[in-house]
Design goal:
The chain is mainly alpha-helical and 301 residues long. The chain contains 8 helices and no strands. Helix 2 packs antiparallel against helix 3.
Amino acid sequence: MKHPFLLLSLLFLSAIPAFSQKEKILEIQRDLLLMQGDIRALQRSHDEKMTAMQVLVQQILDSANKANTAVAVLDNALRDRMKEQERLLVAPVAGLGAKVDTMSNDFAGVRESITDLSSRMGKLQNQIADINSAIKTLASPPPPPPAAGGAPTAAANPNGPPPGVSAEALYNGGMRDRSAGNSDLAIEQFQNYLKWFGNTDLAPNAQYYIGEIKYLRGDLDGALMAFDALLEKYPDNPKTSDAMLQKGRALVKAGFKAEARQEFTSLVKKFPNHDNAAKARTELAALNAPARPPARNTKKR
């Protein structure tokens, strides 16, 4: 009887651990079920949020596409508008530029014409002055013949003119040769006039015409020397303003523009109401005018 009781005791004792292990397994299974439920809940929440995010991203993409389309349309509209404005403005501006160039050329031609006219007027005034001087010379009585045995004659004076040569003959001969274009003979007669009759009233005229002839021949250095000699030896005479004007023009042609400005300015200050002062102002305006750019070559290549 003792052995069956012992066997039952052993079986009871061995069943206790087995029952405890089963409880633990059941508890673990419940925990797993709970974790699976939480995971499924998290998965559903994640899926819902991803779906909402995808919808939001799609909306943003749609808005961006619409904005890009609107910008492209606006850009095309602006480009078309700019091309239209360019088409409407380029032709008138080009025409205006051509008109401005044409007007500049016309003004340049007018200015050159005025300068040429002023030069011709100056020459005409000089001719009138020469005619008046010649008339005065012709109207003056000839010098009386030397008395026999009196004072020494011109031939006896080594520094005087040759016998029979008079101031009037030299001056009038120089004027005739100047008018006829015999510049060398004219200069020679005016130089002889200055050598023998350098203190007479017409000496400044002779000196001036030497400079003028050399200026017209292109001998600018010789012309400047002649005008300087007149201004130094005869500073106050009817030809002073003419010499200053022609000296300034010779300086311009020689490339000495700063010295030319100074000479024209001195002329205006010294003779403000003289006709040559107006010519000097015209020359100053031409010197101070900005240089025109070279004409554009419109020939198609």
